Amino acid sequence: MRSLPIIDISNLVSASRDDRIAVAHALDRACAESGFLYISGKQLDWALFRRLHSRAIAYFALEQTAKMESYIGRSQNHSGYVPVGEEQFGEGVVDLKEAYDVNYDYLHAEGRRPLLGPNLWPEMAGFRDDVMAYYAHIMDIGRQLFGAFALALGLDEDHFDAHRLNPPSQLRLIHYPRDDSAQDRPGIGAHTDYECFTLLFATVPGLQIVSRQGGWIDVPLVEGAMIMNIGDMMEILSNGRYLATRHRVKKVREERYSFPMFHTCDYDYVVAPLTNDEAPRYAPLKGGEHLFNQTAQTFAYLKRRIAAGDLALTDVMPLHSFGRRDV
Ligand SMILES: O=C(O)CCC(=O)C(=O)O
Ligand SMILES: [Fe+2]
């Protein structure tokens, strides 16, 4: 099997448009070939990554009652602590993982949406500052990549800027506790990511993807590179040129941390194929609504609200309506 492509995105910050176009072409080829790839680049700030990791270690070491003070069900924008068992992908399978979810910190009173509001933070000195510093950094890397995708799809480089004013892009701090009895079964059930693309770094391997030949293959960690993958929305925007690949986290015995950032467009942005010269292969999708509907099908606190009649979803699509279905 060939290993996944690796793209150096350093030149996305070059003043030369030709340099940026060259990266866009390389990204386009890699994404057309594989829904998972690696990115490296001089603009990736590993000091910020290390600080995020340290904050996650300190946070998850707190007592459960302290962590539950920032329970995600208390937030206004789907941010906060996600205890083990809260999020369920597979029927009856509880993944051994806990998380702290951070969303776009939307402070205006006007324009709130289910995923747009102020972040919930734990009372832990330094946590908010370091997490937000990472969030701002990875948002900026995402902005550069949106520019590259725009070029790759034959659009103006700044095409996405107007559709990304307050995007509910989520950063997750995920902790998979050490589990000596771990068997090789999913740690996170198989899924595609809902958004445009995900940028992730992890402390130990464990991520697996469905190969185009079928079957699960490991995604090894590459020193100095982040893992990137295409989500449902980019599959639609590219009219299927790029595919959202199903993936999971297998059980590993080691303690593991991972930090995915799910880059998306504005809540009200309607996601539809952007390629003019082809017939659209996908129906348009309301971006934020899709994101929230999918989230509401996997989080216990939202399922409880639906069951109690406090929350009603519209235009729900079944989970796993995207991605390769060979497994
Ligand atoms: O922990 C990982 O490596 C992947 C997590 C993941 O796929 C997700 O949160 O969507
Ligand atoms: Fe994922």
Structural account:
GO terms for molecular function: 2-oxoglutarate oxygenase/decarboxylase (ethylene-forming) activity; metal ion binding. With 327 residues, this protein is an alpha+beta fold. It has a single domain (6-307), classed as Jelly Rolls. The protein has seven helices and 14 strands. It has an eight-stranded mixed sheet with strand order 1-2-10-7-12-5-4-3. A four-stranded antiparallel sheet has the order 6-11-8-9, with no helix packed on it. It starts with 5 loop residues before the first strand and ends in a 20-residue tail after the last helix. Fe (ii) ion (FE2) is lined by residues 191, 193, 247.
Topology (SSEs and partners):
Elements: E1 6-8, H1 17-33, E2 36-40, H2 46-60, H3 64-68, E3 80-82, E4 98-102, H4 127-152, E5 170-176, E6 186-191, E7 197-202, E8 207-210, E9 216-218, E10 226-230, H5 232-237, E11 247-250, E12 256-263, E13 270-271, E14 285-286, H6 287-296, H7 300-307
Parallel strand pairs: 1-2
Antiparallel strand pairs: 2-10, 3-4, 4-5, 5-12, 6-11, 7-10, 7-12, 8-9, 8-11, 13-14
Helix pairs in contact: 1-4, 2-4
The structure holds 2-oxoglutaric acid (AKG) and fe (ii) ion.
Fe (ii) ion (FE2) is lined by residues 191, 193, 247.
